[in-house]
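go over this record:
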Amino acid sequence: MNKFLIAPSILAADFSRLGEDTTNMIAAGGDVVHFDVMDNHYVPNLTIGPMVCEALRNYGITVPIDVHLMIKPVDRIVPAFAKAGATYITFHPEASEHIVRTLQLIKEYGCKPGLVLNPATPLTYLDYTMDIIDVILIMLVNPGFGGQSLIQGTLRKLRQVSKLIGLSGRNIRLSVDGGVKVDNIAAIAASGADMFVAGSAIFGEPDYRKVIDDMRRELAAVVHS
């Protein structure tokens, strides 16, 4: 499981033609649809819910959908996203009263569960969860808004988590979100990431394929270095 995955965030897409825009992104080389769910409670913004996820599936989107829950509480919305077609469901441990129970709930509904760690979230949350998670998402910015710049100190956290995954012996995806661009994706990959969420860096450009191709070119240099 060493393939790098590009996961464009539809938070930055054109919502007046979301199905078409998402399809164009996939045709340009996107591997995964990243789905940012914000509740104006856990984070200071309000975005989209299960109905939009289901609408994309009904439109014909077949690639994995990576649902990032920035909401509190978590458990009540998990079944709805699972039924709407989510592949991955990740959440912030601070937003769940019983983290393992929430991870088990996601698994029970047939999705791949994961934890999201903010820049200042301690790694101790991983001590008792590594055996049941399929993805760890490291936030390179504080969650809530798109278009932010990467916080450099988060790369150290990324390297620490990459080492923990290696020690676990499990095939756990290490995803990153926030400030990912063509000019820094190689450094992020070198720190251990293998799935890259990018919003405005892709959807904010007129040629999605050029951006994704440029990202893959940078990633290929990491693979062969």
Notes: The beta strands are 5-8, 33-38, 65-70, 88-91, 112-117, 135-139, 173-177, 195-198.
